[in-house]
Every structure is written in structure tokens, then in C-alpha cells.
Specification:
Elements lengths: L6 H21 L9 H14 L3 E2 L16 E5 L2 E3 L14 E10 L2 E10 L5 H19 L7 H14 L3 E2 L5 E3 L6 E5 L16 E4 L2 E3 L5 E4 L2 E4 L5 E3 L2 E4 L6 E2 L4
Antiparallel strand pairs: 1-4, 2-4, 3-12, 4-5, 6-10, 7-8, 7-9, 9-14, 10-13, 11-12, 14-15
Bound molecules: magnesium ion.
Magnesium ion (MG) binds next to loops.
Length: about 250
């Protein structure tokens, strides 16, 4: 079932989500050539805990894999999502890095991601980031009470395809709040007018993952990579469905 959040639950979610928004902003000043992804993870964990939160991803379990070790997912270049932070993964000029982070505060989770440019990047990478972020905002604009989840999926997927890119297969957004992952699944492509009806009080994590060369993914343990090693970008916000415009919660 899809949980409708009460106003007191939404108040709690605002707080966890604001930590994420300010964290993602502060990382803009920290991500640069020479930094390794474990340093970004340590910075993030300190940032979250010093504000009273807990990193939602750390220790996250799925069958068949060791608990996720990081507070962030750090996915560089052709890594799509779920990149494990590592001391020996050192950022270099021209890389792109997706940082995905979840925060739990007072029992409620938020979830968001942003892809960062390391120094100056190619025009191709720059365009991928712009298109992926634009597709997120088109998805958010479709997340209105009375619409259906397929309207979000269609808004994202149709735009990405029109730009000649590919949404990654089988990786979706989701409900969020009492748990890091709740119903409904929110695919990044689909048919308008299909799927569950959207209602005020729902809270969604919408998260397009967009590849340059192919929709195909390959799994390496936790990590998902683009099958042809082309670049991939990822942007995500946690939003609240209202009776009017959707409200983005993961903005500082
Ligand atoms: Mg998510």
C-alpha cells in the first residue's frame, strides 16, 4: 500500500530532507580532482550525525550481498548507482560523480541524489547532466494529485528518449518516508495514464538514471554500471504531493 503521511510525519520528513539538501549543496565545494570517494563518505557521515540524523544507506541489506558499507553511494562516470565509496577511487579532472544519500531523522527518511562535475567536463558530459536534471523536474511536474504514476514515468522517459539518451533498465524511483523504500515503484519510462493514482500526502523519491549509449546495465555486486561503459547521470529529489504544485523537500 502507499502511505499517506500526516502533517506531523511530513514535519519530520522536512527535517531529514533538509539535511540532505544542505549536504548536497556543501559537497559542491568539496568535490574536486584528487579527492577520493571514501573521503566524501566520511564527510557525509559526519555531516549527517552532527545534525542528529542517521545515514539511511549504511548497513542497508539486500539478500545475497554484504550490508552496504557507505553513507553515500558514489557512482563515477559509467557507474549508474550504488557505487561503494573507496579510498583508491580518486577523482580526476573531467569525471562526473553521482552522490546519492539517504537520511533518517526521528524515524523518517529522505533520499536525494545529484551528479557533480569534477573540474571542467566535456560538452557531452555537461549535456548529459543537464538533460538528466531536466528530466527529473519534468517528472516532478507530473507528480500531481489525480494523475497516475505512469504520468511521471512517461514525462521522464519521453524526454530522455527525445534527447537521444537512455533510461537505465529496471532501476526505479519509489515511495519514501517511514521506510527508505516504500510503494509505489516509480519507473523512469512508461505509459501516461497508467499505474497507481497519485494523492496528496504521498511522498516520492523520483530519480532518473540516464545513460548515453544504452539502457543495458551490468551488475558488479552492489554497483550498477552501463553495459557499454558510456557515461551515466543520476538526479533525485524527495517530494511531497499536495493539492497544488508538488513540493520538493530535499532542497536546503
Ligand atoms: Mg532512491
Amino acid at each position: 500500500m502507499i502511505y499517506l503521511k500526516t502533517s506531523s510525519e511530513i514535519t519530520k520528513m522536512r527535517k531529514s530532507c533538509q539535511i540532505i539538501g544542505s549536504l548536497l549543496d556543501s559537497l559542491e565545494g568539496i568535490i574536486r580532482p584528487g579527492v577520493n570517494t571514501l573521503e566524501l563518505d566520511e564527510y557525509t557521515e559526519d555531516f549527517i550525525r552532527s545534525r542528529g540524523g542517521k545515514p539511511s544507506f549504511k548497513g542497508y541489506q539486500i539478500p545475497g550481498l554484504k550490508p552496504f558499507p557507505g553513507s553515500i553511494c558514489a557512482s563515477v562516470n559509467s557507474a549508474i548507482v550504488h557505487g561503494i565509496p573507496r579510498r583508491d577511487l580518486i577523482l580526476k579532472e573531467g569525471d562526473i560523480i553521482g552522490i546519492d544519500v539517504g537520511v533518517e531523522l526521528d524515524g523518517y527518511h529522505g533520499d536525494a541524489a545529484r551528479t557533480y562535475r569534477v573540474g571542467s567536463v566535456t560538452d557531452e558530459a555537461d549535456k548529459l547532466l543537464k538533460v538528466t536534471n531536466e528530466s527529473l523536474y519534468l517528472g516532478i511536474a507530473a507528480a500531481r494529485a489525480g494523475n497516475r504514476v505512469g504520468d511521471i514515468s512517461h514525462a521522464i522517459g519521453a524526454y530522455v528518449a527525445s534527447m537521444g539518451y537512455f533510461v537505465a533498465d529496471n532501476l526505479t524511483g519509489h515511495g519514501v518516508g517511514r521506510h527508505l523504500h516504500e510503494e509505489p515503484q516509480i519507473p523512469n519510462s512508461g505509459t501516461a495514464g497508467r499505474g497507481p493514482r497519485i494523492a496528496a500526502g504521498m511522498t516520492f523519491a523520483i530519480e532518473p538514471m540516464v545513460n548515453i549509449g544504452t539502457s543495458s546495465v551490468k551488475e558488479k555486486g552492489w554497483e550498477f554500471h552501463v553495459a557499454d561503459n558510456s557515461l551515466s547521470a543520476h538526479y533525485e529529489h524527495t517530494i511531497l504531493i499536495t493539492d497544488g504544485d508538488p513540493e520538493i523537500l530535499t532542497i536546503a
